[in-house]
Design brief:
Largest sheet of chain B: 6 strands, mixed
Number of strands of chain B: 10
Number of helices of chain C: 28
Strand order of the largest sheet of chain B: 6-7-8-3-9-10
Bound molecules: adenosine-5'-diphosphate, magnesium ion
CATH topology of the largest domain in chain C: ABC transporter involved in vitamin B12 uptake, BtuC
Oligomer: heterotrimer
Structural class of chain C: mainly alpha
CATH topology of one domain in chain B: Rossmann fold
Distance between the termini of chain B: 55 Å
Number of domains of chain C: 3
Distance between the termini of chain C: 54 Å
Number of helices of chain B: 10
CATH class of one domain in chain B: Alpha Beta
CATH superfamily of one domain in chain B: P-loop containing nucleotide triphosphate hydrolases
CATH architecture of one domain in chain B: 3-Layer(aba) Sandwich
Helix content of chain B: 25-40%
Shape of chain B: globular
Radius of gyration of chain C: 25 Å
Order of helices and strands of chain B: EEEHEEHEHHHEHEHEEHHH
CATH class of the largest domain in chain C: Mainly Alpha
């Protein structure tokens, strides 16, 4: 089976700064792939490159098509959604409208109907689904600036989900959430992935990444450092040294977090 | 006991007339690290904003070294030694990293070398515009600059937001040592519960605008169940939990 | 050849004045985030002050003490401007600030006319006379002295902003006040210092200008257009680039003046073609714009703060029926003068609706809408008089033509946004007015261009139709009803647009272009479509205006009116349909203006003066627009702002909380 996303040799330079140096990364349909690395490693830049927000060298194949030269909105319409580390909501629209924008694409026909006859477009089901999934119903009518930071992050995730995309690139969706909230988010993401939506997850919450991902990529200074199933990556000495911290405490901490999350899962199953 | 650096008494505040925090009282002494935990939307950020003066209290008092701050502007509070690293980092995207260290009121002096000591990764970036930094690098700049100002009261909102685990693990002890060495009072909002309880003297848990737990860090670190109970007890009362039940049912 | 060099050098002095105004714009922008349309007016005021204390109007003082007094006066002017306008507006949107500055410009112009009369006054010069012969042409010394003084000022400012704490602090506070306060900076004091620096520099410009021009209410204030162009070259931040651009523009204008006397220069009615220098400024701006990189804001770009909210309309059809019926009755029963004013109000409301689309929904500030209306108006006139094409084909083709022009005006919006776009469209409006409408072949020249009344199948329903109102006087209510029906239909159209997917896309673009692209919105397409739709609406308004006037000149669609249009749109609510209609009811020539004149005798400069002051006051009181506030209630956070505001202390909670998160940056 060929991968949904095949990024090969992605290279991004800003003047003399090389933010990414030939990174290869594949995501298959329904797969949850983690991308981790130290601050400034190039994770956000990678997402920018895949979604067309920075000029990059290398090739991006998505769903069997070469999209390396396509502008961002075309990539999005092909089924590539993303969230932003800095959230970037539409501050002028309510939370619900934020999702509706992503869920519906007006066509010439639908626009004419709406403008002349005043008909409302109906395909906002996806927006409602995303609201339900992330439990944002109580905020649906509010303006984004009135929400606490963690909820705004979730609205960003919901907006990406509302687009019914094939692949969603998530940039630190759990930052600003506490451990319990982040595990909870992880389980919801896992459920979405199990329904066939692929995801690339960038986050610093190792309890989250190592628990729900099928595969993890690690980058450092723009280079791929390691790649494999979470269990292997967590024990990789290079990863421990560059990112996770000293072998002993890291393993201990991670095991602790894993235990907590499996306890949580057990609790949910009851 | 001497007067605490920060004393918040019976404080209420909010945005739309509706109050977000209610009757909060807390203290932070010199050299002490106190953390403020709580679920999203509990009012932690709002509490810090009231202390630094950008949101007004609707009731209650904020005392800084025994002095009531009600008539003091945010600028004057900052000059009196309160440093607030806000949610969203509080740096200026149009200025370079080095320019952030030259920035300040007359008489303020910041030694960039102190910052580079805490965060060596920043030194090679010193001529880069702060807006171009990665999220974590921006956070280092914000925290580094605040530490280098040698404040008497340090308010840190989501200190570890966007920082790699390795860095968080190094940073929290830095804050701890800084407080001990300089006698600075630190009020810390943090999501990394485990690491934060280890370095904190005392912890408050805020939920829906009320303080629901006040414990020493040592007791909480040794007894995580306590914290979880305070969270969960409050969370199930909140609307956030309803869907959870539905989710586990399906 | 030597003449060419001579004329180039002759332009240095006036070019340096442009630079001075441009640098004033840069100072205001850096210090307070204002695109300050009033900088030239400050220079004018100082010029008048100097004239008044030197020439015996108030006193006759010697040159040196008079200069000192004038600069002192300029500084006081700065303090007043800061305290009365800049500070209350500090956390307002850039557009609100621009409009407040416009209010200051209009009020100051009206005030000096009321105080000193229309005619220009011979301001005594302070620079030595005398010429130097260069390449065989005598060039006055003052050209080099003025340029030299302003060059020194530019260098000083450059150093100040790059290397001092004051400069750094100003840059920081302009980006985010709350964060600046967290660092112990005082945004209030920094802003005051910057404003005073600006007015003192404009005082110097006012003094220097005496060698080149007499002091009047027009010349210096209107230097703002080339001054803005120069400042835009420097991206509103660079003093050196602004200085050089200003001087070069002055030299180019001087050279064009020389060319215009040559035989090969295109002519119109015996004289050189009108509006060529305005066209030059516009072209310069377009070049400046294309030198700027980037289509979508990139990582680390500071985004401008947003406009007022655009609430979803409630029960538009019901409101349309109720208010439409009232207006229809009023059109019949009101006496003639009021009826005419009401018709003007309805047409203005249509023009304002076009601003609701471009600015309210799309977030792009466009000053060119009235000129687009003029395109349709002159098309109607020329189709009828030159080709015998009448209603409905002439207005239809006119509206289509306006839409095409609107599409062209949308192209700059793909590269620049917010208030920079206001500057480009301002130059476009000035160029269209002078180069297009001033030309007798395409426009109306000074004599005007005839517009036959609209009629269908021989049935005239123009202002002079046979059915008269209750009092038996023209204009005919038939024409009023026709305008009313068009307004109601267009109003409902704009309401539908706000609720449609397309409208949501526009608001998404307005809020965040990067996120919009990531959500699958074609940002370029949406912007161009919005500009085209709004230009078509403006075209309808322009064509109706032409029918209303019966004969149109360039003055029928002039730029000052266009600026006033934006201002009225903003204070009545630029994001909603009720806002547009209210704006129409209080606009220049409206029923309110007529009543003021008829009942209280307030007119002319007094109306402008009062209007300008009211503009500033309303902006401070109701940042979201009067009608929007009335129809959609105060938004919760705005109410909070009022609850928590108190004099002298820190600003209100939610206001600042918004500001804490205000600098949204991509990462
Ligand atoms: N436009 C830019 N100009 C210069 N440097 C940049 C730019 N964008 C990103 N960088 C640098 O590239 C590196 C990678 O950034 P980023 O991808 O945001 O890291 P992260 O892995 O933390 O998300 C950082 O060091 C950042 O400073
Ligand atoms: N600017 C604002 N305007 C209106 N409500 C706000 C604003 N900021 C925060 N709130 C509300 O205040 C409550 C507490 O928010 P906050 O203090 O940010 O929580 P925390 O930092 O604990 O996550 C939330 O319910 C949030 O919706
Ligand atoms: Mg990142
Ligand atoms: Mg918070």
């Amino acid at each position: 089976m060929t991968a949904l996303l095949q990024a090969s040799g992605i290279t991004v330079s800003f003047g003399s700064v090389q933010a990414l140096a030939g990174v290869d990364l594949d995501v298959r349909a329904g797969q949850l792939v983690g991308l981790i690395g130290p601050n400034g490693a190039g994770k956000t830049t990678f997402i920018d490159a895949i979604t067309g927000f920075v000029p990059a060298r290398g090739r991006v194949m998505f769903d069997g098509r070469d999209i390396s030269a396509a502008p961002p909105h075309v990539r999005s319409r092909l089924g590539l959604a993303r969230t932003w580390q800095t959230i970037e909501l539409f501050d002028d629209l309510t939370v619900h409208e934020n999702l509706a924008v992503a869920a519906t694409r007006p066509t010439v026909g639908s626009s004419l109907g709406e403008l002349v006859l005043g008909r409302r477009q109906r395909a906002e089901q996806h927006a409602d689904d995303a609201v339900a999934l992330l439990e944002l119903a109580e905020f649906a009518g509010r303006m984004p600036s009135e929400l606490p930071q963690g909820k705004r992050k979730l609205v960003g995730v919901a907006r990406a989900l509302a687009g019914r995309s094939k692949l969603i690139l998530l940039d630190e969706p759990a930052s600003g959430l506490n451990t319990a909230e982040s595990l909870d988010l992880g389980q919801r993401l896992r459920r979405v992935a199990d329904e066939g939506v692929a995801m690339l997850l960038v986050d610093h919450d190792m309890g989250l990444v190592l628990n729900i991902c099928d595969e993890v990529y690690v980058i450092d200074f723009g280079h791929l450092l390691a790649h494999g199933p979470p269990g292997d990556v967590r024990r990789n000495p290079a990863v421990l040294a560059a990112y996770l911290g000293g072998p002993a405490d890291a393993a201990q901490q991670l095991d602790g977090e894993t235990a907590a999350s499996s306890a949580e899962r057990a609790g949910e199953a009851q | 006991m001497t007067t605490p650096v920060l004393e918040v008494a019976d404080l209420s505040a909010g945005y739309t007339g509706a109050e977000v925090i209610r009757h909060i009282s807390l203290t932070v002494g010199g050299g002490e690290v106190v953390t403020l935990f709580g679920p999203n939307g509990a009012g932690k950020t709002t509490t810090l904003r009231v202390i630094s003066g950008v949101v007004r209290a609707s009731r209650g008092r904020v005392l800084y070294a025994g002095r009531d701050l009600a008539r003091t502007s945010p600028t004057a509070r900052a000059r009196a030694g309160i440093a607030h690293v806000p949610e969203g980092r509080g740096i200026f995207f149009g200025l370079t990293v080095a320019e952030h260290f030259r920035l300040g009121y007359r008489g303020a002096r910041i030694d960039p070398r102190v910052v580079y000591e805490y965060f060596p990764a920043l030194e090679p970036l010193k001529d880069r515009r702060a807006g171009l930094l990665s999220g974590g690098e921006q956070q280092m700049l914000a925290v580094g600059r605040a530490l280098a100002r040698r404040p008497q009261l340090l308010l840190l909102d989501e200190l570890s937001l966007g920082l790699a685990p390795l860095l968080v693990e190094r940073l929290l002890p830095v804050v701890r040592n800084y407080a001990e060495d300089s006698g600075c009072a630190v009020l810390l909002v943090e999501q990394h519960v485990q690491l934060a309880t280890e370095i904190a003297d005392r912890c408050y848990v805020l939920s829906h605008g009320d303080i629901v737990l006040h414990e020493t860090g040592a007791r909480l670190a040794g007894n995580p169940g306590l914290l979880i109970a305070s969270y969960v007890g409050q969370q199930s009362a909140g609307p956030g939990q309803q869907g959870d039940g539905a989710g586990s049912g399906g | 050849m030597s003449e060419v060099i001579g004329f180039l050098l002759l332009g240095i002095g006036s070019g340096a004045l442009i630079s001075g105004v441009g640098m004033g714009v840069v100072l205001s922008y850096r210090g307070a985030g204002v695109i300050n349309l009033a900088v030239g007016a400050f220079a004018m005021l100082s010029g008048y002050f100097f004239w008044a204390i030197r020439s015996g109007e108030f006193a006759s003082i010697g040159t040196v003490p008079a200069v000192v007094l004038t600069l002192l006066f300029s500084a006081l002017l700065g303090v007043a401007f800061e305290l009365l306008v800049v500070r209350p507006q500090r956390s307002a949107t850039p557009l609100a600030k621009l409009i407040a500055a416009l209010g200051v410009l209009l009020a100051l112009q009206a005030a000096v006319i009321l105080a000193f009369g229309q005619s220009a006054q011979p301001q005594p010069t302070i620079l030595p006379a005398g010429n130097v012969i260069i390449a065989g042409v005598p060039v006055a010394w003052y050209n080099f002295i003025i340029a030299g003084i302003l060059l020194v000022i530019a260098v000083v400012f450059m150093a100040l902003y790059r290397w001092t704490r004051f400069g750094l602090g100003t840059r920081a506070a302009a980006e985010n006040q709350a964060h600046a306060m967290f660092m112990g900076l005082s945004p209030n004091r920094l802003s005051l210092a910057n404003t005073v620096l600006m007015t003192v520099m404009m005082g110097i410009v006012g003094l220097l200008s005496a060698s080149i021009t007499e002091v009047d209410s027009q010349t210096l204030p209107l230097l703002i257009v080339p001054g803005l162009a120069a400042a835009m070259f420097g991206r509103f931040t660079s003093f050196s680039v602004t200085f050089v651009a200003g001087v070069l523009m002055g030299m180019a204008e001087s050279l064009l003046l020389y060319f215009s006397t040559e035989s090969w220069f295109p002519t119109n009615q015996g004289g050189p073609i009108p509006g060529y220098d305005e066209l030059l400024i516009f072209i310069v701006l377009v070049v400046a714009m294309f030198l700027r990189a980037g289509k979508i804001p990139a990582r680390g770009d500071v985004l401008e703060r947003r406009l007022p909210a655009a609430p979803v309309p409630r029960a538009p059809v019901r409101s349309a029926l109720i208010y439409g019926a009232i207006a229809a009755a009023a059109l019949y029963f009101l006496p003639g003068g009021f009826r005419g004013a009401l018709i003007t109000s309805l047409i203005s409301a249509i023009l304002l609706l076009s601003l609701v689309i471009t600015t309210g929904f799309l977030g792009q500030v466009s000053v060119v809408q009235l000129a687009l209306g003029g395109v349709a108006g002159f098309a109607v006139s020329h189709f009828a008089t030159n080709f015998g094409i009448g209603f409905p084909w002439a207005p239809i083709m006119g509206v289509l033509l306006a839409a095409v022009f609107g599409l062209l005006c949308g192209i700059p919006a793909l590269r620049v946004r917010g208030v920079s776009l206001a500057v480009v469209t301002l130059a476009a409006a000035v160029a269209i007015e002078n180069f297009g409408f001033g030309n007798t072949t395409w426009g109306g020249g000074v004599t005007g261009s005839y517009v036959p009344p609209p009629s269908l199948f021989g049935f005239n329903f123009g202002p002079n139709a046979s059915l008269h109102g209750l009092d038996g006087i023209e204009p005919s209510p038939l024409f009023g009803w026709f305008v009313l029906i068009v307004l109601v239909l267009l109003g409902l159209f704009v309401c539908n647009l706000r609720r449609s997917g397309l409208g949501q896309d526009m608001l998404a673009v307005r809020a965040n272009e990067r996120a919009a692209a990531a959500a699958g919105i074609n940002v370029q397409y949406t912007k161009l479509l919005g500009f085209t739709l709004s230009a078509a609406v403006a075209g309808v308004g322009g064509a109706l205006l032409a029918y209303n006037y019966g004969s149109i000149t360039a003055d029928s669609y002039d730029t000052i009116t266009a600026l006033a249009l934006i201002a009225f749109a903003y204070i009545s609510g630029i994001t909603t349909v009720p806002g547009a209609i209210w704006g129409g009811l209080i606009f220049i020539g409206s029923i309110t203006a007529y009543a003021l004149q008829d009942w209280f005798g307030i007119q002319g400069e007094w109306f402008t003066l009062i209007g300008g002051l009211l503009l500033i006051l309303t902006l401070v009181q109701r940042p979201e627009g009067v009608a929007t506030a009335m129809f959609y209630g105060p938004r919760p956070s705005l109410r909070a702002l009022r609850l928590t505001r108190r004099g002298g202390g820190p600003p209100g909670g939610s206001q600042i909380a918004d500001r804490v998160g205000e600098a949204k940056v991509a990462s």
